[in-house]
Amino acid sequence: MITKKILIAMTGASGAPYTRRLLELLVDAHHQVYFIYSKAAQIVAKQELDWQLSDDLQSSKLFLTEIFQSSLENLTLVGIEDWFSCVASGSNMVDSMLICPCSMGTLSAIAHGLSDNLIERAADVVLKENKQLILVPREMPFSSIHLENMLKLSQIGAEIIPPIPGFYYQPKKIEDLIDFVVIRILKHLEVDIPDSPKWGR
Ligand SMILES: Cc1cc2nc3c(=O)[nH]c(=O)nc-3n(C[C@H](O)[C@H](O)[C@H](O)COP(=O)(O)O)c2cc1C
Fold it and tell me: How confident is the model at residue 1 (pLDDT cuts 50, 70, 90)?
């Protein structure tokens, strides 16, 4: 199996359960995963999952090893201002970057090339190097500003995958709805998860 180098960025939009499931599946499948989270993501992760993510990466990694009951050797935590990380430059690229969930603030910053923290900078690098950037934007409703920012990013090659589950699989529990979105994202990352449901005969 081909393993990929994937950067997962979590920002302060609602949707932390998606990030949890993606981390679980990608680490389990032995991909090399880099994980970065914004200050606001720490607050949302606490609110939605009771997760203890902080600026102290060592204690956050320890916390995640307990949550996932795994040594997480293939998971590297990256600080939001670690400008010396490989994801800060085009010389040592990841295969793909995924921002899940993506806040409207981060969406706007990337659409306007701000690069004010390492999530924004890494996305800027991925775009300039023509690598894969997937955004999972979450807000309701979207304003024209949000839609314009999404259009702008889509036009330069970013993939916009809003977390909108379909109901034709007849979901029975919240986990089914989460997996619907997560499996779509993994399909775009070209990561195969055995036994995942596929529509059609
Ligand atoms: C519990 C909670 C839920 C939030 N949900 C959203 C959301 O769904 N979408 C969004 O764009 N912002 C949401 N926000 C606001 C963002 O966290 C805020 O705009 C923040 O500045 C984003 O920063 P970041 O992009 O650096 O993570 C939420 C905040 C909190 C505390």
Answer: confident
Handedness of CA 181, 187, 189, 192 (dihedral sign): positive
CB within 8 A of 109, min separation 6: which ones? 115, 116, 120
Residues 118, 78: contact at Cβ < 8 Å?
yes
Query: Which residues lie across from 32 on neighbouring strands?
Result: 5
Q: Which of 193, 197, 188, 195 is nearest to 170 (CA)?
A: 197
Residue of minimum CA distance from atom 12 in ligand 1: 13
Nearest to 96 by CA among 54, 33, 167, 182: 33
Position 197 confidence tier, pLDDT thresholds 50, 70, 90: low
What dihedral do alpha carbons 21, 9, 69, 54 form, nearest 10°? -130
Nearest CA to ligand 1 atom 31: 44
Q: What's the gap in Å between 11 CA and the centre of ligand 1?
A: 7
* Class of the domain covering 5-188: alpha beta
